[in-house]
Specification:
Blueprint lengths: L11 H31 L2 H21 L7 H26 L10 H4 L1 H8 L2 H8 L9
Helix pairs in contact: 1-2, 1-5, 2-3, 3-5, 3-6
């Protein structure tokens, strides 16, 4: 006898957040490769540490992206914290680089990209999705 378990589809807001994070990972890979090539050409420890930091953030983003299907509340809050870290990272690096931050520099993907992900993950459908545990046991 075959047992079927009906699963609830992922809400639109969670799918949209996952899609935006996928775009972040894709563009982040391009950025890390190009930054890595530039840092290797200089062979200075500062740029190499920056590339390592950005690669770690990118790896953590990809790892959390793969955990969306688990529906665990810690995944939701870890993604929110990571996206806040990404925006903070961008702002701090720009302040260190130029000594100032004008509004035009905040209108880029690194500053605005994580904001919709955080907003989408703080909406009630997202809360409901992540608060219900995924059923792994088959009914008897």
């Amino acid at each position: 006898m075959t047992v079927t378990v009906r699963t609830e589809p992922m809400p639109f807001v969670v799918r949209a957040a996952r899609f935006l994070m996928t775009l972040q990972v894709a563009f982040g890979l391009v950025a890390v490769v190009s930054l890595g090539a530039a840092a290797l050409s200089v062979l200075a420890p500062g740029p190499l540490l920056l590339v390592a930091w950005e690669a770690a953030i990118l790896g953590l983003t990809g790892w959390l992206l793969g955990r969306f299907g688990r529906r665990a509340m810690w995944v939701r809050w870890a993604v929110v914290a990571l996206e806040v870290l990404v925006v903070t990272d961008y702002v701090v690096l720009r302040l260190m680089d130029s000594g100032g931050l004008d509004p035009v520099r905040l209108l880029v993907a690194n500053a605005l990209g994580p904001v919709p992900v955080v907003v989408l993950l703080l909406l009630p459908p997202s809360w409901r999705w992540f608060s219900q545990r995924k059923r792994t046991d088959a009914p008897s």
